[in-house]
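Appendix B. Worked example

We walk through a single record from start to finish. Start with the input: the chain for Peptidase M1 membrane alanine aminopeptidase domain-containing protein, Panagrolaimus davidi, length 237.
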Amino acid sequence: MAFPDFAAGAMENWGLVTYRERVLLFNEKLYTPLQKQYVATVVAHELAHQWFGNLVTMKWWNDLWLNEGFATLMEYAGVDAIDPNYKMEDYFLLDALDNALARDAMATSHPLSFPILKAEDVSEAFDQISYDKGASVMRMLRTVLGETNIYLTKHAYSNAEHTDLWKALTEVVPDNLTSWNGDKFDVDDFAKKWTEQMGFPVITVSTTSKGVQLTQKRFKMDENAVESSRFKNAKFW
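Next comes the structure step. The output line below is what the pipeline stores for this chain.
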């Protein structure tokens, strides 16, 4: 349903999705191809919420990214499935992933999953970390594990947290999928490094008299910026 004036832009009410007119009503004579793409992605995002957010809802606001990360990923995957000419899976790298990296490189970033203790803290979670980094982490896991609906099946008409997602995905890990050390791939160990601490690593390769040395540290736009002690980073990935 379209409204001429709607503050939220769009809202995924179960069975009655509401939109601003400009993000639903499309006129081929008036809209540019980019505007058409925008309408398609907003519709895909809200429809994805019928499953990720409505069918399965996060237990608490600290896992808002489960709703928004999945829905953001489906913006691109959904439109790409309907019209591959848009190359939305490729555009994801230039749009969502790039936005996530830029925001996560700031000292003021935060983990995907972080404590929400007061009502006024809820709005803090509605940002590019929850949407774009959340989608990027989901995309990474999809690349590693493939696609499965086990999470939705297990938690339909219920609430879940990020650890429930890891448990569900663990059940579909192929026997021949291993981590860097040769052990069977551990979804929880892999995923928590991207969800329970902020930032992402920059890898430095240097040569020494004994061979090659690899080091990693959190990449920051401003090395001198002080990170909040609230989100102390373990700096390992």
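Two observations about the output. The chain has a mean pLDDT of 91. The helical segments are 33-48, 64-82, 88-104, 128-145, 150-155, 162-170, 187-195.
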